[in-house]
Amino acid sequence: MKIAVINSGSSSIKFKLFLMPQGKVLAHALVEKIGETNSTITFKYDTNKHVIPSVIKTHHEGLKEINALLKKHEIVEHFCVLDAIAHRVVHGGEYFKDVTIIDEEVIEKIKELIPLAPLHNGANLEGILVSRKKAPDVVQIAVFDTAFHETMPKEAYLYALPYEMYKQHKIRRYGFHGTSHSYIMKETAKNMGTDAKKLNMITLHLGNGSSACAVKNGLSIDTSMGFTPLEGLVMGSRCGDIDPAIPLYMQRELGMSVDEVDALLNKHSGLLGICKDKDLREIEKREDELSKVAIEMMVRRVKKYIGAYAAILGRVDALVFTAGIGENSYTIREKILQNLEIFGIELDKKANRQNAALISKESSKVKIFVIKTDEEFEIAKQSEEFLKNQ
Questions:
Q1: Which residues, other chains included, contact 111 with Cβ-Cβ below 8 Å and sequence gap of 6+?
Q2: Which pLDDT tens digit goes with each residue over 174-198?
Q3: Catalytic-labelled residue, pool 145, 222, 317, 374
Q4: How many CA atoms lie within 13 A of 259 on its CB side?
Q5: Is 241 annotated in the active site?
Q6: pLDDT digits (tens, 9 = 90+) for 101-159
Q7: Residue 385 lies in a domain
C-alpha cells in the first residue's frame, strides 16, 4: 500500500511517500519558501539527494513539482495511482477524535477551526484542497494533532471559566503535537521492552513549537498546549503561558487591536521577542544577556511542567526528549534536567553529550530517552490501520 503524507505549512510542503506496512520511505520532498523568489525543493530517494532552486509561487505548483520528480525518478507515475494521501491537520476541535476521510463537510469544519490554529489550519487546508484537485479519485485522509489528547479527563481539559463557555462555544484545552507524542510513547515502550499501557511517562516535544505531555498507562492525561497552540512552553515566536489579563491591557491601555495582539503573541514573542532570534542554535552561540535570559526562561518553563506532571502522574517511568531542540541540544537537555534528582531523574552527562538514545544513569529511577520523532510515519501508520478497518 502506497500512502503519501503531506504536511502543508504556510510557505512549505513536507511530503513523504511510504510503502506500508513495511514503513519504507520511497521518497521524501521538502518544498520551502513558497511564494518567494528563492524557493527550493529538497528531494530524496534511496541514497540520492537533490536540492533544486526554483520559483514556486503556490502550493499547487509545489505539489506539481513533487509529482514531476516522482515521475522523473520512476517512483510513481502520478499521485492518482496512490492508495491514499494523508494530511496532517493541527486542530480538530471536538469534531474529530480519530482519523477521518476528507469530504466537503470535513473541509468546512477545518475552515471553521482556522481561528483556533491561525498559523496552521489554513495552511493544512491548502494542501488538502490542492491534492484533491490533483488526485480526485484517491482517498484523502486527515490525521489531527488534537486526537491523541482526547483521552484527557475533564479536570484537565476544562478551563475555570463559566461551564457554558465550554458547552456553547467549546472553549477547552485540546492539545497539539499529538502524532509526535503518540509516536514517541510507542517508541519508548519498545525501548523499555514493554507495553505502553503499563508505562507512565513525560514526553517533551521541543522545537520551534514546543509542548509537554503527561502519559499515564498509554493515554494522554494532560498537555501544555491548550485551546490553541499558543499556551504552554516558551517557543520560537510564541509566548506560552502568560497572565490572561495582559492581552486585555494591551488593547485597553496600549490601543492595540485584536489582530495586533494576536500577531504579537503568536509571531513576535517567545525567544524571538526576548532576544530577537528564534533559532536556538544561533542563540546558544551568543553571549549577550538577553540571549542567556531567553534560554533560561525556556528551560525554567519546561522544568515547571516536568514537576507538575510528575505530581499528577505519581509515578514516572520515563522522560523523553524529541523534536529539533530535544533531539539535538545536549546543553538544553542538561539545563532542563539539572536538580531534578528529587523526582528520581538522574542524567548521565557523558551519554547526554554523545546524544545517546538512553541518557539516564543506571541508578536513575526514571529512564531518560532521546528519540527522533517521525510524525509522518505515525500518520501513515494510523491511516493504514484506518483503511484496513473500512
A1: 121, 125
A2: 999 999 999 999 999 999 999 999 9
A3: 145
A4: 0
A5: no
A6: 999 999 999 888 888 777 678 778 888 888 888 888 999 999 998 999 999 999 999 99
A7: no
